[in-house]
Amino acid sequence: MGFEATFKALGDPTRRRILELLRAGEKSAGELAAQFGTTNATISHHLSVLRDAGLIDDEKRGKYIYYSLNTSVMEDIYAWVAGLLGGNGDETEPPV
Amino acid sequence: MGFEATFKALGDPTRRRILELLRAGEKSAGELAAQFGTTNATISHHLSVLRDAGLIDDEKRGKYIYYSLNTSVMEDIYAWVAGLLGGNGDETEPPV
Predict the structure, then answer these.
(1) What is the pTM assigned to this prediction?
(2) pLDDT (tens digit, 9 = 90+) per residue, A48-86?
(3) Which of A50, B35, B66, B86 has the highest count of CB atoms within 10 angstroms of its CB?
(4) Does ipTM come in above 0.95?
(5) What residues of chain A lie within 8 A of the CB of B31, using their CB?
(6) Can you tell me the distance from the alpha carbon of A50 to that of A72, in angstroms, rounded to the nearest whole number?
(7) B13 and A96: CB-CB below 8 Å?
(8) Burial of residue B71, with CB atoms counted within 10 A of its CB: 0-12 exposed, 13-18 middle, 19 or more buried
(9) Cβ–Cβ of B11/A3 closer than 8 Å?
(10) Domains of chain A from N-terminus onward
């Protein structure tokens, strides 16, 4: 597994902020756009990048699509970073 | 503080592998290049990206420059990811 798409998605401050907002629970694109004072179209682009990177899920209910954190890829990142920080002198490394 | 340069640096598999190798302790560019079967020049480019992102330090000793992990930025990433994974329903977030 590669982390390319994940790290690319995380490299943008708006996308990181979206993840922080979704930490509190699912939100629609409109609710997110309101937080940023921007259009739904702008937010939708960021949401599609996050979704393609596996960082969020979407679910259509009625008129709206609701976005929520998908923590599984983030847990892989967390484990990889923890592995680097917990260096103990051997050269084994987690699969990346 | 922004994570742009950090996440960009981490988006490359060779650079992630360099960090994994440095986890075991400092290495020269030549030692790293030998691990990848590539030239020092190729590795030096990746090392400069990692250094500019604050992820590694370098120290010249004698004829060689030795590279080592700088964990402080990585600890910031770790804390940010941990904050996302530890979501508890409020919307506070760490400074990014």
Answers:
(1) 0.82
(2) 999 999 999 999 999 999 999 999 999 999 999 999 998
(3) A50
(4) no
(5) none
(6) 13
(7) yes
(8) middle
(9) yes
(10) 4-85 (1.10.10.10)
Chain A partners within 8 Å of B13 (Cβ): 2-4, 96
Whether residue A19 contacts residue B10, with contact meaning beta carbons closer than 8 Å, is answered with no
Partners of A50 on chain B (C-beta within 8 Å) are: none
The DSSP symbol for B81 reads H
With an 8 Å Cβ cutoff, are B23 and A91 in contact?
yes
Smallest CA-to-CA distance from A6 within A17, A21, A14, A16 is with A16
Own/partner long-range contacts of B17-22 (Cβ < 8 Å, ≥24 apart): B17/A93, B17/A96, B18/B43, B18/B46, B18/B47, B18/B50, B18/B56, B18/B67, B19/A84, B19/B50, B19/B55, B19/B56, B19/B69, B20/A83, B20/A84, B20/A91, B20/A93, B20/A96, B21/A91, B22/B56, B22/B67, B22/B68, B22/B69
